[in-house]
Write a sequence for this structure.
């Protein structure tokens, strides 16, 4: 892979109106559920990033006819719950944890065997969290020694429903089990320790699949069918988050982010920033295809350090890299606890962010389950994103408040979730250059 680095000159402000690319979580699910549905699913706003394209390629490799993507439009010719075909070779899922964990569940119920592989980051991430409960349902899945990819998912296993209380608050685990549950005898129920994103449940319901939700528990019965629908995917709040923070920390900023997905299981970043004193107004609230959507206006505001409420952690789980940058620009101390999951994301986001912040002169101390950050000046410097898209984009925003240029290394994976980031950010006012 070409080494891509960003150089971001200090200062500037963010302004204008922009729409960030489509939601990654919903994009994955549109391909998966569209493939399993009866009929033609028309998707708009699809994220043309490497992660969701990996899912798209995998379903094509299993015989699903998929047209596009063409400017976010994708047409999926559903094959029904039992219409997938054995792939001719292993399915390579790149950097994408969502693809691997959700597909592990979905493939557990197929008549054929499939092998899932990924890049070095994905190959180091924990898969036992899905493999163990899937095995309890009757799946036969082989992993590498440490319970990691490659996963060989043996076909032809009869699955039985499970009543599973998840030890970690994970939408990927929940979704994986629900997808296996489509193929299981009896009911599959998942209880979550804290609310996690519910896009799978919303899309299943939208496609007519009966689902029972009560509090933190969701159940479905195997053996029903899915009906194709049109899916209009909103802009990804996790991508909007970089701009919410950037415009908050850079003086004289005034930015509108259009058509942002506002699913309440995803809006923790707004709640946290508002607790820190951010000026974010939500306008034009509407519902699009079963998902709430709004335009967000963000203006610069002095931020203050806070103790991040633990209940908001799963609702902002992907936004902590950039929230740490907000904390570095805030007055006083910010403390995050209860976020040990950050250590097993695309990188160890606690350590990698702490190292980068310290390299930029910020007082940041990693803890086992979070970070303590004292706001203060950000110096010029050089940081390593460790191939983690969200770390690269978070440090790019830090330059808005830095005393000199920030160089960010290993940024190619920004394309997994945010193709066009450099151009869009530059257009909004960030002094960023990429060597791509
Ligand atoms: C995702 C769930 C989250 C999130 C990931 C996408 C999903 O992971 O971090 O980026 O689409 O279901 P966990 O469920 O492991 O927390």
């Amino acid at each position: 892979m070409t080494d891509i680095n960003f150089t971001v000159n200090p200062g500037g402000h963010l302004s204008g109106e922009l729409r960030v690319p489509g939601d990654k979580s919903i994009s994955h699910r549109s391909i998966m559920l569209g493939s399993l549905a009866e009929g033609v699913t028309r998707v708009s706003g699809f994220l043309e990033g490497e992660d969701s394209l990996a899912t798209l390629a995998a379903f094509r490799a299993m015989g699903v006819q998929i047209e596009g993507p063409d400017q976010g439009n994708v047409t999926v010719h559903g094959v029904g719950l039992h219409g997938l075909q054995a792939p001719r070779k292993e399915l390579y899922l790149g950097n994408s944890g969502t693809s691997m964990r959700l597909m592990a569940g979905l493939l557990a119920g197929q008549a054929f065997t499939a092998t899932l592989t990924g890049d070095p980051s994905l190959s180091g991430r924990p898969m036992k969290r899905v493999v163990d409960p899937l095995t309890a349902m009757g799946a036969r899945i082989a992993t590498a020694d440490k319970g990691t990819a490659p996963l060989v998912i043996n076909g032809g296993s009869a699955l039985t429903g499970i009543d599973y209380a998840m030890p970690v608050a994970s939408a990927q685990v929940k979704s994986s089990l629900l997808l296996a549950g489509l193929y299981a005898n009896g009911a599959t129920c998942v209880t979550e320790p804290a609310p996690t994103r519910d896009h799978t449940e919303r899309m299943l319901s939208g496609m007519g699949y009966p689902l029972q939700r009560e509090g933190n528990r969701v159940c479905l019965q195997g053996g029903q069918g899915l009906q194709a629908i049109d899916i209009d995917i909103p802009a990804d709040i996790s991508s909007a988050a970089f701009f919410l923070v950037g415009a908050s920390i850079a003086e004289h900023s005034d930015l509108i982010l259009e058509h942002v997905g506002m699913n309440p299981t995803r809006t923790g970043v707004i709640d946290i920033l508002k607790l820190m004193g951010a000026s974010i107004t939500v306008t034009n609230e509407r519902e699009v295809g079963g998902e709430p959507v709004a335009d967000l206006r963000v203006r610069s505001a002095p931020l203050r350090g806070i103790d991040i409420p633990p209940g908001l952690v799963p609702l902002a789980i992907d936004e902590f890299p950039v929230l740490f940058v907000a904390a570095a620009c805030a007055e006083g101390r910010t403390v995050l606890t209860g976020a040990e999951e950050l250590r097993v994301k695309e990188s160890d986001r606690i350590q990698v962010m702490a190292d980068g912040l310290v390299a930029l002169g910020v007082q940041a101390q990693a803890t086992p389950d979070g970070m303590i950050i004292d706001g203060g000046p950000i110096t010029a410097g050089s940081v390593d994103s460790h191939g983690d898209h969200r770390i690269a984009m978070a440090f790019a925003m830090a330059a808005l408040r830095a005393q000199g240029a920030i160089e960010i290394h290993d940024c190619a994976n920004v394309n997994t979730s945010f193709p066009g980031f450099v151009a869009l950010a530059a257009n909004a006012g960030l002094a960023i250059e990429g060597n791509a």
About this structure: Residues 159 and 184 are 5 Å apart (CA to CA). Residues 6-21+234-434 form a domain with the UDP-n-acetylglucosamine1-carboxyvinyl-transferase; Chain fold (CATH 3.65.10.10). The radius of gyration is 21 Å.
